[in-house]
Amino acid sequence: MALKDNNTTGKFTGQKFTLDVERVPVGGDAVAALQDLVASGHQFVLVDAPADVLLQLSDSVKGQDVALFNVSAPEVRLRQEDCRANILHTAPDLAMLADALAQYLVWKKWQRWLVAKGVSPEDKEYLEAIRRSAKRFGATIVEERPYEVTPGARRSDTGQQLIQLQMPVFTQGAPDYDVLIVADRRGVFGPYLPFRTWDPRPVAGTAGLEAMSWHPAHEQWGATQMQNRFQRFAHRFMLPLDHQAWIAVRAVGEAASRTQSGDYAPINAYIRGDKFDLAAFKGQKVTFRKWDGQLRQPIIIAGPELPVSTSPQTGFLHEHEEVDTLGIDAPETKCKLQ
Q: Cβ distance 312 to 323 under 8 Å?
């Protein structure tokens, strides 16, 4: 879809855009695949891979005229202590997602949070983002309650009854709270918590009410047109990963048409510069932050069926751009691009 958009403009600018795909199996040699792409002349590469693989790819082309677009990895460290000058991030990081959710909860005056946390490294990363957001926006975490994974047959004949007993007991006896925040990125226990808490409370975080870059039912700001196009093309709903990849391809096309060039240097400079912006069906044009390469963008707050709100919320102000209230701002960044 993004290629079609780019080539529609390209008919008038004398430019043609193509996309080649290298699929690497889990455990395969992603670096070799990237080197093959670079050797064949590719300079702008979308990467859908885990954080550590992304860093390996970045380091393998350091100093070369190659820009990588991270379209999926949400780890904050990729934009902070492990940031790289040759990576741009169209995927929001966990800090942005946590801040977006926190702003909505604080706007609702649901400021007392009970946190149900998993034990995986991914869960701990999200938990750190939630802690930071609570402190940043004036919420209080009344308790962090770890979920110990217990073996069980949730799909057996008695599985439903076990869940119905287990989840209320897990949330029983908590201090007074407004909302249950779930830190369970692998979906081990979080999906079982909505409507099963001991006290009647909303569930948010990685289950229930979630923050995301895109939602299949998002319709504002012309998004209905985008959703319909995608369904006709892909025969399914558009998900956050799809939108994040679309933005990356459109960014290259927009920069190429604006600079009237097919060369790496002017395109890369334009994407990172002050003149770049891109309409993304999210109420404002999106741009890249200079200090860490992160795409600044509004974040959708949604339940399983429908969007509920969009952050930044009204009243959360910033001296330059309100969308920079989401995530790590320039004065607090640990990123030293290299």
A: yes
Q: What angle do CA 12, 15, 17 make, to 5 degrees?
A: 125
**Report field, pTM of the whole predicted structure over 0.90:** yes
Asked if 113 and 139 touch (Cβ cutoff 8 Å), the reply is yes
Measuring CA to CA, which residue among 65, 106, 113, 109 is closest to residue 85?
65
β-bridge mates for residue 240, sequence order = none
Angle between helices 2-13 and 240-259 (to 10 degrees): 10
Q: Mention every residue, 6+ apart, whose C-beta is less than 8 A from residue 7.
A: 15, 16, 17
Phi then psi for residue 299, to 5 deg, are -120, 135
How far is it, in rounded angstroms, from Cα 191 to Cα 239?
18
Rounded CA gap, 189 and 204, in Å?
Answer: 13
- Which residue in this structure is represented by tokens 């009647």? 200
Q: Spell out the SS3 assignment of 313-334.
A: CCCCCCCCCHHHHCCCCHHHCC
Q: What is the pLDDT of residues 156-179, one digit of tens each?
A: 444 555 778 889 999 999 999 999
Q: What is the pLDDT of residues 6-62, one digit of tens each?
A: 999 999 999 999 999 999 999 999 999 999 999 999 999 999 999 999 999 999 999
Residue type, 260: Q
Report whether 113 contacts 98 (CB < 8 A).
no
